TrEMBL record:
Residue span(s) of domain Histidine kinase/HSP90-like ATPase: 28-134
GO molecular function: ATP binding; protein serine/threonine kinase activity
Official protein name in the record: ATP-binding protein
InterPro entries: Anti-sigma-factor_SerPK (IPR050267), HATPase_C_sf (IPR036890), HATPase_dom (IPR003594)
Protein keywords: ATP-binding, Kinase, Nucleotide-binding, Serine/threonine-protein kinase, Transferase
Domain of life: Bacteria
A Pfam family of this chain: HATPase_c_2
Amino acid sequence: MRTWSEILAAVTGRRAMALREVSWWLAPELSSVRDARRLTRRQLAAWGLDDQVEVAELLVSEVVGNALGHGSGQVRLGLAVEDGLLRCEVEDENPELPRLRSAEVDDESGRGLFLVDTLSCCWGGERTARGKAVWFELPAPTDDGTAGAPAPVAGLIPAFS
């Protein structure tokens, strides 16, 4: 699988600016959702992206939870910042790509990707050599204080507090 930096260079002919990238392997157990939130919170704080911690934690929980509930094997959580965007990616060993669906009022599940779709700039999934990777992006301020995309949900965040 090509990295975002390689894709950006191929499409635009330039390298990403200020690339920051980390990833971790998570155990295939439910406690890994808590671990993923903790890792995300700590890393975003280290990168100075405190304004994105709450939304990123929520969406990472959903995507890691989906990987553990519907995938198989180890799960890899990756975070990267480049060109004003925070990209969160979760890879598992199940090649079936997720799809957005409508949950009925009484359904106990089925709303996770709706949250990802609503709160992120964009999201998607792609098959990998191991299975699949599901990702989403959030705006992240650059060194000059600008972000790569407008925050689509600024008024919604307090509702989740």
